[in-house]
Amino acid sequence: MLSIRAVEVDKEPVTVEALAKRLEQYWLPDECVLYIGRASKSVRKRVRDYYRTPLGATRPHAGGWWLKTLKVLPDLHVHFTRTNDYLQAEKAMLGEFAKRVSPGSQAALHDPERPMPFANRKNEDDLPKRHLISGDTVPLEPVNLVGPQSLS
């Protein structure tokens, strides 16, 4: 994580253990979808920007940063389809996801009223997860990293 400002969980200075515990409270063990996103142009560019964004930075693409905390990141896959209305498609997919989360998994969430994929931070109504993690992203100028191997 970038050490530019203090990251907090529940308004307390973060520890690795506290952050891991909070992220674990959003894990849906019976779901294979970890993030739903959109790309207004090139999916390739969007994924490349994601990997180029250091953990904690907002640019070039901070969405889904919780994925970067997973050991299995290199094993994950991006599935996509083309659409003329990518905003509506993302909203619809997030809504369907929320409707289909198993009752047991939903009840175990830190924020059971807003089920969404693990790495999404806003739902279909643009309401944020109530994760109480603050200071986790900071605006930075883009940096030149070469891909996922730079994250280790």
Q: Can you walk me through this structure?
A:
The chain has helices at 16-24, 43-52, 86-100, 103-108; strands at residues 8-9, 12-13, 133-134. It is mainly alpha-helical. The protein has one domain (8-137). The protein has a three-stranded antiparallel β-sheet with strand order 2-1-3, covered by helices on one side.
The number of helical elements comes to 4
Count of strand segments:
3
Q: In angstroms, what is the radius of gyration?
A: 15 Å
- Beta-strand fraction estimate: under 5%
Nearest-integer average pLDDT: 83
Q: What about the largest sheet?
A: 3 strands, antiparallel
What would the principal axes of the Cα set say about the shape? globular
Reading the helices and strands in chain order gives: EEHHHHE
Q: Given the helix and strand composition, which structural class is it?
A: mainly alpha
Spans with pLDDT under 50 lasting ≥5 residues? 140-152
Helix percentage range: 25-40%
Report strand order across the widest sheet: 2-1-3
Integer count of domains: 1
How far apart the termini lie comes to 11 Å
Please render the helix and strand layout as text.
Layout: E1 8-9, E2 12-13, H1 16-24, H2 43-52, H3 86-100, H4 103-108, E3 133-134
Can you tag this structure with a few keywords?
3 strands, mainly alpha, 152 residues, three-stranded antiparallel beta sheet
Brief characterization of the structure:
By secondary structure, this protein is mainly alpha-helical.
